[in-house]
Amino acid sequence: MPDAEQVLADALAATRGTDVRAAERALDRLVVGDPAAVDAALLARLTHGVARLWPRGWQPVDLERLATRRLTPRGARLLRDALAAQRRAMPEPVPSWFDDQLTELGARWDGDPGWLDRRAEGDRISALRDAVDALALLAGLPPIAVLRPPPGGPAAAPRAAAPPTGSRMLDRVRALLAKAESTTFPAEAEALTGKAQELMARHSIDAALLDAAAERPDRPGGVRLGTDAPYAAAKALLIQEVAAANRCESIWSDDLGFATVLGFPADLAAVELLHTSLLVQATAAMLRGRGERRAGSGRRTKGYDESFLNAFALRIGERLRAATATAAEERADDRLLPVLAARSDAVKERVDQLFPGVTRHRLQVRDAEGWTSGTTAADRASLDAGRPTRRPVRGSR
After folding, report:
1. DSSP characters for 227-241?
2. How far apart are CA 53 and CA 174, in angstroms?
3. Which of 8-12, 369-373, 386-390 is the least confident region?
4. Comparing C-alpha atoms, which of 144, 171, 11 is closest to residue 65?
5. What crossing angle do the helices spanning 4-16 and 35-51 adopt, rounded to 10°?
6. 369 and 253 share a domain?
């Protein structure tokens, strides 16, 4: 009988093919194989599969996001196991951000012997199928933009001391947005969200001026934000609008289910906080509008929901940009415009480096009622009135 590694290689090849019966036969051979040898081969393949992702731009949270979408809960758990197991083999030093992400994901390693059976819950056949599916996912992942120096690669060059993080300000922003999400009064949500954007815009300007005088100025970084179904395109548009209001650029990778936002640290923090809150507000408003529509003569349609969320995103973007402009006017001095222009150029240059094949997607308004309702909901969640403009969503090829 072939050794466990060969049987596993055959099972992986069959799973990635189109012959379902061949895949089941290959799985059967794994089932009747020596459990210890099969488990060792699986673990070696999984840890090798995750290790090859780090220099290709992937981070643990990126892998977790995709695994949650494409695998069973146990399959995703097996990948978290592999992350923790592979961490043991990494040469020190390992970047602190990497360990922080593993901690956030709850990835820990309980030891090699019997590791698969601990996840099998009495169903080893299903556990083997989930493990092979996890291997197939790893094997098919493409390179993506490298946003941070990966583990095992050259460390980032030493930098000057970073400016204050503004944690107290961010705590105030979180509190304002939490109130905006929970209030049932549109005017209150409007005031709270607007105040949060103004605070973050002022903090960003102060950070930009401070950084411009530093011996080693900062450079644009990036974060990835999920755009899960349903209505992934509308969620990507919301990210893009929030990013633009905070002097960032957003690129949507539809096939991988995330948008990459590039910008300077204070601006990226603002995008993450605002996007999360506004998505909650938009969803709640959409559900309310859907209920009102059911009570009338209309019925819920996908076109209504998409149009609602697209209109919400465009309107919110206008209002957030207005709040940012107001903050800039309040902080205006002779240094500000050149500093902001230089940072904007740096972000755009970073986009060109990482995403040379960007394309644009046009919005389609499928439901006029949904568009009107989404625009009205955005009025209640932000600042000033204005006409929505058609802004295409940028996506990577």
Report:
1. -PSSSHHHHHHHHHH
2. 33
3. 386-390
4. 144
5. 60
6. yes
Together in a domain, 123 and 56: yes
Regarding whether 267 and 207 lie in a shared domain, the answer is yes
SS (H, E, C) 38-98: HHHHHHHHHHHHHHCCHHHCCCHHHHHHHHHHHCCHHHHHHHHHHHHHHHCCCCCCCCHHH
Cβ atoms 98, 63 nearer than 8 A: no
pLDDT in tens, 252-308: 999 999 999 999 999 999 999 999 999 998 888 888 777 666 555 455 578 888 888
Measured CA to CA, the distance from residue 310 to residue 390 in angstroms comes to 10
pTM as predicted: 0.84
- Note whether 265 and 307 are same-domain residues: yes
Which residue type does 235 have?
A: K
Q: Which domain holds residue 349?
A: 167-396
* CA-CA-CA-CA torsion sign (70, 75, 77, 82): negative
Beta strands in the chain (DSSP E): 221-226, 249-253, 258-263, 358-361, 393-396
Cα–Cα distance, 83 to 81 (Å, whole number): 5
Q: How many domains does the chain have?
A: 2
* Distance of alpha carbon 142 from alpha carbon 69, whole angstroms: 16
